[in-house]
Design brief:
By secondary structure, the protein is mainly β. It is 0% helix and 57% strand. The chain has a 4-stranded antiparallel β-sheet with strand order 1-2-3-4, with no helix packed on it. Strands 5-6-7-8 form a 4-stranded antiparallel β-sheet, with no helix packed on it. It has a 4-stranded antiparallel β-sheet with strand order 9-10-11-12, with no helix packed on it. It holds the Pfam family WD40.
Length: 121
């Protein structure tokens, strides 16, 4: 679940949006082909990022409820997404043991971090 002025509930490959104040249903967003793992609003509340076990991150225009970009780059399920405070960058973490920092405007990976194996762990 995620709150902004909206309540987001993910159900397998879709997620539903309700107005937090009125409780009214607003939309169902479909686009992922496997279970949705996490969502995050940008600081303006106009963009929503979602990630899924389908290995993709999607950016949604939250004023029209349409997918405007699909970000490719993870080799396994993407488990977490979060906008940085500026809203210009998005961080994703996946079960491929990587963290990626995406430039929102272009959809390009600007930084890529891989976990390292530590002896004895």
């Amino acid at each position: 679940m995620n709150f902004y002025p909206h309540f987001i509930k993910y159900i397998n490959i879709i997620f539903q949006v309700w107005d937090y104040e009125t409780g009214e249903y607003e939309a169902t967003l479909k686009g992922h082909t496997d279970v949705v793992q996490d969502v995050s609003f940008d600081p303006s509340g106009n963009l929503l990022a979602s990630c899924s076990a389908d290995m993709h991150v999607k950016l949604w225009d939250f004023t029209t409820y349409t997918c405007i970009k699909t970000l490719f780059g993870h080799d396994h399920s993407v488990s977490s997404v979060c906008f940085l405070p500026s809203g210009d960058f998005l961080v994703s973490a996946g079960r491929d043991k990587t963290i990626k920092i995406w430039e929102v405007a272009t959809g390009y990976v600007r930084r890529h971090f891989e976990s390292i194996k530590i002896e004895g762990t």
